[in-house]
Write a structure and sequence with these properties.
95 residues
Length: 95
């Protein structure tokens, strides 16, 4: 397993929030498409850096100079299912 000096932990809720912000941006809503994560030593998965801003960028803006990289086929199928299945709303579990 590769060892990385810095690690940022994102929960499913964090990732779904970023996805929601991207979808709101695509609908014309005003959003920074960002979440801020801080190192909290009491968290079971404490980020290894003091703070970081994670910004979501729409694909058409991000991949302007290269094609997206390959992904696992199961992940690609799940993403395509999410994009095409309007009867499957994003679930935001509350803590």
């Amino acid at each position: 397993m590769t060892h990385y000096t810095n690690t940022v932990y994102l929960s499913k809720r964090n990732l779904l929030t970023l996805l929601s912000k991207l979808e709101r941006l695509e609908k014309g809503d005003d959003t920074a498409c960002a979440i801020i994560k801080y190192a909290n030593p009491t968290d079971p998965y404490c980020n290894t850096i003091k703070e970081i801003k994670v910004v979501a960028i729409p694909d058409e803006k991000f991949y302007t100079n290269r094609a997206p990289g390959e992904m696992h086929p199961m992940d690609e199928a799940n993403i395509k299912s999410h994009i095409t299945n309007t009867d499957n709303p994003i679930d935001f579990p509350r803590s």
